Every structure is written in C-alpha cells, then in structure tokens.
Amino acid sequence: MSRVAASPSVPARARAAVAPFARGPVITVGAFVTVLLIVVAGRYGYHRDELYFLACGRHLAWGYPDQPPLVPLIARAMSAIAPGSLVLLRTPSAISAGLVVVLSALTAREMGARRDGQIVAAVVMASGGVLCGTGHLLSTSTFGLLAWAWIIWLVVRLLRTGNNRLWLLVGLAAGIGLLATDLVAFLMAGLVVGLLVAGPRHVLRSPYLWIGGVVALALWAPYLAWQGAHGWPELAVSRSIAAGKSGTSTPRALFIPDQLLNLGPVVAPVWVYGLIRLFRDSAVRRWRPVGVAYVFLLVVFIALAGKSYYLAGMYPALVGAGAQPTADWLRRGADRARTIAFTVVVAVSFVVAAVTTLPLVPVTALHDTPIVAVNYDAGETVAWPAFVNEIAAAYRPGEVVLTGNYGEAGAVDHYGRAYGLPSAYSVNNAFWYWGPPPGSAPALAVGFSTSQVARFCPGATLTAHLDNHLQINDDEQHAPVWTCPRPAAPWASLWRSLRALR
Question: What's the CA gap between 389 and 378, in Å, rounded?
C-alpha cells in the first residue's frame, strides 16, 4: 500500500475521522434522479440550445464563440449512436445529475457527516430545481455543475487529509470541466482566494498543485488557442449576457434572491446554515476556504451581471456543511415529528422543482400555467417542428434560409430536410462562422425585426409570423418571416456587419 503524503498540520485523528459511506441510500437517491430524468426526457422536444449543439457537433472544432468543444462532441456522439433520439441525447445529462447527488453526499461525509447526514445531503440536493433543470437538458451547465461538484469534493477531501497529491486529480477534473464551460476557471480562482484568505496557505506551495494546474491548462489550451485566433468572441457573448440579452440573464438585484430559489426556498435553510457554519464553527474550520470562495464568487458574478445558476456548483459544499447539523436536529425531535415534517418539506420542494423544470404538464395545457414565466427553458422545448413547417410553407425554391438566432437555424437543419428546406444560414454565434450565403442569393429571412432586415434587404416583404399554435409565449412565437428578393449587397460583403454574438 502506497504511503499517503499528508500535511503535518493536519492531525492524524482528523485524517482518519470519516464515517462509512451511506452507499445504498445515497446511490438509490442518485439513481432515482437519473431514472426520472431519462423517463421524461422524450416529452416536449429539443431545446434551442440542443439543436445548436447538434449543429456544432456537425462542425467539430476546438472551440466556438460561446462555448468550449465538449458538449457539441457529446451531442455528435449521441446522435451518431441513435440519430434523432432525444432520450439518448439527454442521457449523459441525467447520469451527470445523479453523480452530483452522490458527490454532494460524499462532500458531506468529508465534512464529518455520518450516515444520516449523508442521506440529508443527497435528498436536499436531489430536491433542487437547479439539478432537475440542468439534468433534463444537454447543456454546458449540466457538466459544469458536475465538474464543480467533483472539484469541490476533491478539495474538501484534500483539506481533510492533507494529501496534496489530490491536486493532480483536481487539475484533471478542472481540465475536463473547462472543456465544457469556462465557469470552472472562476471556481479555481475562488478556491485560491479562499485558501489565501482563510488558509492553509502552505497547500498552495505544493508542487502537486502546480502540476495539476499544468494538466488543467494543457487540456484547456486548444480552446484558448481557438478563442485567441478568432479575437476572443466569448468576451462579446459575456457582455451580451451582462446586458440582459440572454433569455436566462439575471438582473443584479435578483441575483441573491435567486440563490434562495435555485435549490428551493423550503430547503434553503440547510445550505444557508452550512455557509454560516463554515465561518463560525471550529469543527469545520479547515473547510472555511470553500465558504470564502462562495462569498468571493457571489460578489464577482453580481459585478459581472452573471446568471444566478453560475453559483449552483457550490451547493454540494454548502449542503454538505449543513447536512449533519440538520440530521442532528431531526434526531432530537420528539416522536419523529421533525423527521416527518422535514420529509414533507423535501417532498414539496421536489414536486415543485419537478413540475416547473420537467415536462410533466401536458404541452397543450402549458399556456394555462405559470411554468414558462418561471422557467424560460420550458418554452424553448416546444413546437420546433411546427415552426419549421411554417418556414417551409413560406419558402420558395432558390432561396436561402437566413435566421436571426441559432435556435431557428438549428431547427431548420434538424427538421428541414423532411420539408424540402436547405441547410440554414444564421448571423448568430457559431453559425456566423460557418459562412455567408452564396453571392446575392434571395433569402427567406426568419426572426429579424423590421430595423434589422432593413440593414441587409431594404426591399424585404413580410410573409408570415411564426405561431406555435399552443398559445405559449416563447422566443419564437410571432417571429416575423420575410421574403428578401435581393440583398443590398453580396452576402460576403454584408456578413461582418451582421454578426450577432449573444
């Protein structure tokens, strides 16, 4: 057996003080989440981002203007195995969500949680809307959440054991995570700040940390090279998000209140107490850097006008810190009253999360509910075939299809062949990089406002408005469809001025 390299400042008692893993209950909870997500995966339809990822997967590259390469690669692989299978496309996300549940319990275990505390951590994390929502769709957020949970568990374990060799695994996890989302870089910065502020600072001098950093950077380097070669377009995308141009952008004033909603307000006391405990309880003093990291990132993301779910990856640590005190409080209740009440609270949280984030309500009744108003993504998973059918009805042979956003273009590429449509062009994000339409070809322009279409086709006529026929007010409802008989100049001359990064 190899000898563990432990910091002399970590007592042997602390290194050994870990309870047995509550394997059966925790894995059962994680499996339940995964199975549920797979069972409902085929309802409604593709999300606009998923259609975009499928398109990116057909144009594999080391980078894209708005994301690293991992998720398009996963979309390509799932599509190659079973073309057109929405269930298979989303299966990696469902598995990822189940793993986050398990990692939350393992993080609680590292922080001293016994069997009951680990179960509390698992069920609280599983009941959260942010887990159901990200686990339902193939997205960068899905794998970003898993990467954060994985990294935090490793760092929490490192701080308990003093085994600096774990920095190598942290570097590997960070490198893989960075291929899914740049937000992993913020987590690493936050953890370094936490260690500098709260200590122990000596772990930052470990050569294993620097080797792990090299591993992470080496994995991330091809994407950085792509961004650098293309003028760092993701910075423009970030500015657009900060300006509120994304459907899921969060106003600064709502960022903190949204933190209480991401896991559900009825279970928020568990992670809020966990955060407070990291700063006040000497029993968890060694993990205070994680609490500092959360506060630091909270300030950073508010300053940058980031989205509220950017901090979701911190919940496994905060829930982990609050799990055992919650379990102890439940045990002190007379006649199991507290346990019953807590079970009801968690069940209510899960039901609310499931109804608002998963496709459980019949799509024909969706307009009678506040779900789309509460959960933007729900509205973006309906009626794409209907929209493409309407585009096809307005299309005339010889035209190119030009769209204002990647969702419309992705839908045309995915469904259009059955309606006799050519592949789409778009001015938005990666589609812009795949080139302008040929020459001065006439176009059917979809999703452009009157002022936008006037920039490239002053003679355009309004042909139709898209209608999902479900009375759902999503991003495409009533989008205009224009006939452009001739652009103002050859498309190649217009293309640069039409680029829309958001």
Answer: 21
Please report how the helices 315-331 and 288-303 are oriented relative to each other, as an axis angle in degrees rounded to 10.
130
CB 56 within 8 A of CB 64: yes
Number of domains observed in the structure of the chain: 2
- Give the range of the structural domain holding residue 469, as residue numbers without chain letter: 384-498
Residue 310 shares a structural domain with residue 420: no
Asked if 356 contacts 371 with a C-beta cutoff of 8 angstroms, the reply is yes
Q: What is the pLDDT of residues 11-65, one digit of tens each?
A: 444 455 789 999 999 999 999 999 999 999 999 999 999 999 999 999 999 999 9
Find the angle CA(74)-CA(76)-CA(80) to the nearest 5 degrees: 115
155 in a domain, yes or no?
A: yes
Mean pLDDT, residues 90-115 taken together: 97
7 has pLDDT over 50: no
CA distances from 412 to 28, 392, 407, 446 (A): 40, 9, 9, 11
Over the stretch 161-197, which tens digit does the pLDDT of each residue have? Answer: 999 999 999 999 999 999 999 999 999 999 999 999 9
CA 469 centroid distance within chain: 29
Q: How far apart are CA 281 and CA 344, in angstroms?
A: 29
| 366: in domain | no
> Do 180 and 322 lie in a common domain?
yes
Residue 376 falls within a domain, yes or no?
Answer: no
Question: How does the average pLDDT of the chain come out, rounded?
Answer: 93
Q: Is the dihedral of CA 323, 326, 328, 333 positive or negative?
A: negative
Kindly state whether residues 308 and 456 are assigned to the same domain: no
Quick one: 333 and 200 in the same domain?
yes
**Sequence-separated (6 or more) residues with CB below 8 Å from residue 467:** 386, 390, 477, 478
- Inside any domain, residue 375: no
Specify whether 265 is located in the same domain as 389: no
How far is residue 219 CA from its own chain's centroid? 20
Give me Rg for the CA atoms of the chain. Answer: 24
Domain boundary among 305, 340, 357: 357
Q: Among positive and negative, which fits the CA dihedral 111, 113, 119, 121?
A: negative
Tell me, yes or no, whether 345 and 460 share the same domain: no
Is the dihedral angle over the CA atoms 21, 26, 28, 30 positive or is it negative? negative
Q: Is the same domain home to 388 and 353?
A: no
Residue 499 φ/ψ region, left for φ over 0, alpha for ψ in the -120 to 50 degree band, beta for the rest = beta
Residues 172 and 126 in one domain: yes
The pLDDT > 90 percentage for the chain reads 86
